[in-house]
Amino acid sequence: MSSQRLNIQIVVPRAAGRRSGNRVTARRWRRVLRSLGHVVETVDRYDGRNCDVLVALHAHKTAPSALDFLRDVPGGRLIVALSGTDLYRDLATSARGQKVLELAHRIVLLQEHGKTLLERRLHHKCHVIHQSVASPGTSPEKIRRWWQVALVGHLRPVKDPFLLARAVCDLPADSRIRVVHLGGALSERMAVRAEAEMARSPERYRWLGSRPHWQVMRVLARSQLMVLTSRMEGGANVVGESITVGTPVLSTRISGSIGLLGEDYPGFFEAGDVQELRCQLLEAEKQGEFYDAISARCAALKSVFEPRRECRDWKCLLDGISDDR
């Protein structure tokens, strides 16, 4: 298949916003697949054309497109890419999502731990393709006036967006920790809450709202630490972004992060645990053994997120699906 030019459609759930994780993933995969010589477009619904490969991003929400494609194109190949909401919420009760997985020729996961949520009989179809990050040409220096902690994510309940603000509001006076939070408020209530958190801890927490990607990457690069507070993630892209710019990570102990960072990663805390997060922040700020350990582990993972690796993994998947014909 590497020598064959394919017509590929990537179906993204219609409700996904322009800057949602699914849209960002679809745009990057479109670039990768086009670089391999294929004709690729992103659509909200399979449009009935005789394409060779359909990539359905989110088994439950794109199931109608996947099933229509299999009916209309008997020789076509279906690749189903599983999102976090698929793995950790929808598939447990979605009969049509389960049917799509049974019929799929390949299943794409964003991290290895996702397999633990699938029936063993599906494992032979699974390919793990990590979301790559383009490494910036130059990296800015770290903030020195204070000890900056970055939080990147839209203000949604599943992200537990104010856990970090709560963790830093009562830090000891001699702590230099300051949180910079980038992410859009998806409701007026969330915006009001963010403003209230800033008013409560003006020296500790700043919410900057939604910012362009280049600015997010700059904030990550200038920070001493990135914290992921989510209760559920399929494999958060910000983990790879942070690692790529040399900023170590603290994360909730959730499947999506275990799959990216490893079961024994020392920088995990339990979801929703303010006290454990506060203790880890203070320990990291000392920049002693704990900070050195998470920094070393993150540095060792940097190659996982290289664009050429993601490109190679997609080529391998498409080559293999060709052999099935």
Topology:
Blueprint: E1 7-11, H1 21-35, E2 39-43, E3 53-57, H2 63-72, E4 77-81, H3 84-90, H4 95-103, E5 106-109, E6 126-128, E7 147-152, H5 163-168, E8 177-182, H6 188-200, E9 205-209, H7 213-222, E10 225-228, H8 237-244, E11 249-252, H9 255-261, E12 268-269, H10 274-285, H11 289-300, H12 307-323
Parallel strand pairs: 1-2, 1-3, 3-4, 4-5, 5-6, 7-8, 7-10, 8-9, 10-11, 11-12
Helix pairs in contact: 2-4
Write up this protein.
With 325 residues, the chain is of the alpha/beta class. It has 12 helices and 12 strands. It has a 6-stranded parallel sheet, with helices on both faces. The chain has a 6-stranded parallel sheet with strand order 9-8-7-10-11-12, with helices on both faces. α2 (63-72) packs across α4 (95-103). The model has no long low-confidence stretch (mean pLDDT 93).
